[in-house]
């Protein structure tokens, strides 16, 4: 039997949403509670400044470092999709990095943040100003995207900044661990892939969440996209707080969380 698509999902009574429209000061947002997940549809920068989310144990996120990204796709003669990005000014990156500072100040244990080469230094410095020890890691993709015009060597890795507080919990006790994580990226056509253009593999997110979150902790992703961090956190027994500005991706995230519960807690 083929794997059901999250986009075709129809919620049942087992995963019923509790949806409210709330306001804190001048900031309005939609709030959706599904089991141990609390999902917000709104601008996370505004919600962070308003103090909506509160303290958490771990921050795991992949921010859009441009405020007005436009994601386009095209197909080659071999059927491969490529992404086109329209990144804007340094001011946009500054806004996102400052929002990470506000979020990190509420984090009790550790943070893992995906970022580009251009943002890695700013992200690390911001986490250090929040009282954390910040270091760098990389996610290596065995199957990088195909070359494009003007792209000599397609990138086969993504940068990660991780940070932790003194005495923080660390859940990776493997003997040969290091700061290089090898995991296949999601290519279009795979069952796990949904509509979000920068979706991360669930196994990679589960490993990162497991490593930085104490038992029954709370994980936050203020730029949750299609909700992969949330599904990873819930599958490990944690609570999840997520925020997404796009109503389309917010709905997909809600459906993925519902589907997680309907499958009996299987990611």
Automatic annotation (TrEMBL):
<dbReference type="InterPro" id="IPR001091">
    <property type="entry name" value="RM_Methyltransferase"/>
</dbReference>
<keyword id="KW-0808">Transferase</keyword>
<feature type="domain" description="DNA methylase N-4/N-6">
    <location>
        <begin position="57"/>
        <end position="253"/>
    </location>
</feature>
<dbReference type="Pfam" id="PF01555">
    <property type="entry name" value="N6_N4_Mtase"/>
</dbReference>
<comment type="similarity">
    <text>Belongs to the N(4)/N(6)-methyltransferase family.</text>
</comment>
<dbReference type="GO" id="GO:0008170">
    <property type="term" value="F:N-methyltransferase activity"/>
</dbReference>
<dbReference type="InterPro" id="IPR002941">
    <property type="entry name" value="DNA_methylase_N4/N6"/>
</dbReference>
<dbReference type="GO" id="GO:0032259">
    <property type="term" value="P:methylation"/>
</dbReference>
<dbReference type="InterPro" id="IPR029063">
    <property type="entry name" value="SAM-dependent_MTases_sf"/>
</dbReference>
<dbReference type="InterPro" id="IPR002052">
    <property type="entry name" value="DNA_methylase_N6_adenine_CS"/>
</dbReference>
<keyword id="KW-0489">Methyltransferase</keyword>
<dbReference type="GO" id="GO:0003677">
    <property type="term" value="F:DNA binding"/>
</dbReference>
<protein>
    <recommendedName>
        <fullName>Methyltransferase</fullName>
        <ecNumber>2.1.1.-</ecNumber>
    </recommendedName>
</protein>
């Amino acid at each position: 039997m083929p794997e059901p698509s999250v986009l075709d999902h129809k919620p049942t009574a087992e995963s019923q949403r509790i949806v409210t429209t709330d306001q804190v000061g001048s900031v309005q947002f939609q709030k959706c509670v599904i089991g141990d997940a609390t999902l917000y549809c709104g601008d996370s920068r505004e919600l962070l400044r308003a103090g909506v989310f509160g303290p958490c144990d771990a921050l795991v996120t992949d921010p859009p470092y441009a405020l007005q990204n436009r994601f386009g796709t095209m197909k080659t003669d071999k059927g491969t999709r490529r992404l086109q990005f329209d990144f804007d000014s340094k001011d946009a990156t500054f806004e996102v990095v400052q929002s990470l500072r506000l979020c990190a100040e509420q984090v009790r244990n550790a943070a893992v943040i995906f970022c580009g080469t251009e943002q890695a230094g700013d992200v690390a410095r911001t986490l250090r100003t929040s009282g954390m020890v910040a270091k760098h890691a990389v996610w290596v993709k065995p199957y990088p995207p195909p070359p494009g015009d003007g792209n000599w060597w397609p990138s086969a890795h993504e940068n990660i900044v991780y940070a932790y507080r003194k005495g923080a919990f660390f859940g990776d006790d493997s003997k040969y661990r290091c700061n290089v994580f090898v995991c296949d990226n999601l290519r279009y056509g795979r069952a796990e892939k949904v509509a979000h253009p920068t979706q991360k593999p669930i196994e990679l997110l589960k490993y990162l969440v497991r490593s930085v979150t104490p038992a029954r902790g709370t994980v936050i992703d203020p730029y949750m996209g299609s909700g992969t961090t949330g599904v990873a956190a819930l599958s490990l027994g944690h609570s999840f707080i997520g925020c997404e500005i796009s109503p389309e991706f917010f709905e997909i995230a809600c459906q993925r969380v519902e589907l997680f519960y309907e499958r009996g807690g299987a990611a």
